[in-house]
Write a structure and sequence with these properties.
With 184 residues, the chain is of the alpha/beta class. The protein contains 5 helices and 10 strands; from the N terminus they run E-E-H-E-E-H-E-E-E-H-H-E-E-E-H. Strand 9 and strand 10 form a beta hairpin. The longest helix has 14 residues. The two termini are 26 Å apart. 36% of the residues are buried.
Length: 184
């Protein structure tokens, strides 16, 4: 497994959800594996809460187990980060807790994406969701866009890259690589 700290690599933050519904093991594995080839990675969640992986399969169980043993598996507090950020799918909800000292939302003037209401209503736990990202983003003064359910959709705005769903993981990370390359 990659991502031991190397001095010549830029830092990169992977934002994950700290929600009980968990983080897709396969999506996170793809994101982490791709990004670790170019960056020193740090993981962040709201409040620094530990990630719970869901959809762990025989093909990714060993990776998840190994990941949990690494020092970088302990998430930083999202609220304290100011470097390039990439959030995909339900991980975008983690951005909603990032507030300024005056309690305003850090991303209130940004454009971003995340799971659309059309995607969320298909899930059995929709009625129990503590937050609908699309509604929160619009209500907080940012611009939300989405494509068709399950389609690839990525938005890049300043230092923030967001992906609509797990299908958007690879192009979101590719945009993150582009963003970090252009900031040199």
């Amino acid at each position: 497994m990659a991502s031991e700290r190397l001095p010549n690599r830029p830092a990169c933050l992977l934002v994950a959800s700290g929600a009980a519904e968990g983080v897709s093991a396969q999506s996170f594995l793809h994101c982490f594996t791709m990004a670790s080839t170019a960056f020193n990675l740090q993981v962040a969640t709201p409040g620094g809460k530990a990630m719970e992986f869901v959809d762990v399969t025989e093909s990714n169980a060993r990776w998840v187990q190994d990941f949990r043993l690494k020092a970088y598996a302990s998430p930083a507090k999202l609220e304290s980060i100011d470097e390039p950020i990439c959030a995909v799918g339900h991980g975008v909800a983690a951005l909603c807790c990032a507030t300024n000292e005056d309690r305003s939302w850090v991303f209130d003037s940004y454009s971003l994406t995340g799971p659309s209401v059309c995607e969320l209503v298909r899930a059995p736990g929709f009625a129990r969701l503590p937050l609908v990202v699309e509604d929160f983003v619009k209500d907080s003064g940012a611009c939300f866009s989405a494509s068709e359910p399950d389609a690839v959709h990525v938005v890049l705005d300043r230092h923030l890259v967001t992906g609509q769903n797990a299908s958007s993981t690879v192009p979101a990370v590719q945009n993150l690589l582009f963003l970090c390359g252009s900031r040199k």
